[in-house]
Amino acid sequence: MERNGSASTSTSSLFLDRVGEVAVTLDPDGLSWKPIDFESSGSSCLCMNYRLKTENRIEFSNVYAVELIGWGLIEVANRNPGSFFSGNKFEMYRFMVHGFHRGKTHGSPWTLCEYTFGHKDMLICQSWVERLIALTNNDAVRPKSLLVFVHPLCGKGNGVKTWETVAPIFSHSKVRTEVTVTQRAGHAFDCIASLSHRELSSFDGIVAVGGDGLFNEVLNGLLSSRHDAPYPPSPQELDNKGDTNCEHLNNDISHVVVESNGLGISKCTTNNGPCNADEDVKVSFPNDWFRLGLIPAGSTDAIVISTTGTRDPVTSALHIILGKKMSLDIAQVVRWKTSPSSTEVPSVRYAASFAGYGFYGEVIKESEGYRWMGPNRYDFAGTVAFLKHRSYEAKVTFLKTEEQETSNTANVAVSRIHSQDSRWLEYKGRFLSVGAAIISCRNERAPKGLVAEAHLADGFLHLILIKDCPHPLYLWHLINLKRGSNPFDFTFVEHHKTPAFTFVSSHNESVWNVDGEILQACQVSVQVCRGLINLFASGPEV
Question: Where is the DAGKc domain (predicted)?
């Protein structure tokens, strides 16, 4: 391998499969090569005479793995008809560079590519592999070990097939994966919730292969016993205050700061000093290192579309392998009562994309009986719910904020009031639906999402109140969603950006849709936990 000009650039002669002998140049940003054709002057590593021709290149940012694949055949392309070596195959030692091409337009999927290089000397191949791995593997961000859950029946029943498609990407990258194919509803939740802190800390993240429902199950299993934050105020507490514009309510939702240490494993100390190595240490959230991944195989896949810009398993897998990282707001949904007369203790659910009541709850409840229809069940259930055109008497109280907090502190879970100007506002009446969008919720039925401008980690949700209205007007609202037009440009639609709200209904069968999962509740409080989790994603391209 020859050095050219600087210590960071070098050139060597190798063979490239389906091309032939090439001059390969390594620089700090990538790998380039020029095919060499037969000519009467010059020399090569196989004692043949060649000249330089066209050039090709791959950037290191587009390389996800490099591996030595041993002795085998390299094919020389038929570029010189009549030449002794045209179309021949040679045996030599080989190594493979695995990469991808980014889409040329926003929202385009990434496509895989691979380049097989060869040389008669195994040590030269090993040297190239070692150098390329050193330049492409960012050990500080790439995962080494992942816990994977595959939903076999999600969407069109392609969960296992989807995983089999992307599994080689993880194998090539030498990422250890512990895979579980779920057998029942709640399987992933139970597995994750039962992990000890030490078991959980042996992984760099958890990957869900499925839809938004499986991701919600993973999310709740992870946070159910590992996220400590005060509940938002209950509807009863606000009623007892008696004044919805009372500034002293600021104490009810606090600014919660949770410091993480490296992997997010809290420092383990006792009265006698640090814990010993055999003691379990706590993994808490927010967590600066631990990430969740989602490989789409569901019916709508709103979360993955909103966070990567495309609904493509390979693109999502590459985001995971490359160690992409972005924070995501999570909504904490506290159910105070299942029905008006119930007396159960409060329970908590977490949502990554959406929580909705009324029309949204009816759709998810109706669709449960038509799972055999696959993704089409949502269209059918939506039609049934629309034709019923049911409205519900309810009271919604939300936190109105005049100032927005701009802190980007990495280790802060924010469920808070922004300033002393904050006040609670109340809406009471009949609603067709009450929706809370944490992210844009982009999907094939709503290309721009429910709220096109929703931020992924600003500490706010978008409260959408659809008041009772004539059937045709509600249809026009839904059509605007489908077309990507403004769905809020109606007098019967209220849209508010807020960090928290409460909801009360006197209906005995109040059903919420939480990330596509059913939650029966007539009294809830919802608050946003800013940047509570990190995703293997980089956000949609804009």
Answer: 141-337
Using CA atoms, how far residue 469 sits from 207, 345, 363, 431, 491, in Å, is 42, 36, 18, 9, 9
Strands (DSSP E) found in 102-170: 111-119, 145-150
* Beta-sheet pairing, 392-400 with 500-505: antiparallel
Strand, helix or coil for residue 258? coil
pTM over 0.85: no
Residue 409: pLDDT over 60 = no
Q: Is the pLDDT of residue 289 over 50?
A: yes
Residue of 29, 121, 139, 212 marked catalytic: 212
Torsion sign (Cα): 469, 470, 471, 475:
negative
- Judge whether 314 and 304 are in contact, CB under 8 Å: no
The CATH number of the structural domain formed by 2-136 is 2.30.29.30
**What would the 3-class secondary structure string for 492-503 be?**
CEEEEEECEEEE
pLDDT at residue 140 in the model: 73
CA distance 255 to 537: 26
CA-atom Rg of the chain in angstroms:
28
The distance from CA 337 to its chain's CA centroid, rounded to whole angstroms, is 31
The CA angle 231-236-238, to the nearest 5 degrees, is 80
Residue 440 and residue 452 in contact, taking contact as beta carbons nearer than 8 Å? yes
Q: Are 159 and 36 in contact (CB under 8 A)?
A: no
Q: From CA 216, how far away is CA 164, in angstroms rounded?
A: 22
Q: How far is CA 381 from the centre of its chain?
A: 27
| 58-83 pLDDT, tens digit each | 999 999 999 999 999 998 876 555 54
Please answer whether residues 189 and 217 qualify as being in contact, where contact means their C-beta atoms are separated by less than 8 angstroms: yes
Question: Would you list the domain boundaries of the chain?
Answer: 2-136, 146-260+282-535
Supply the CATH classification number for the domain 146-260+282-535. Answer: 2.60.200.40
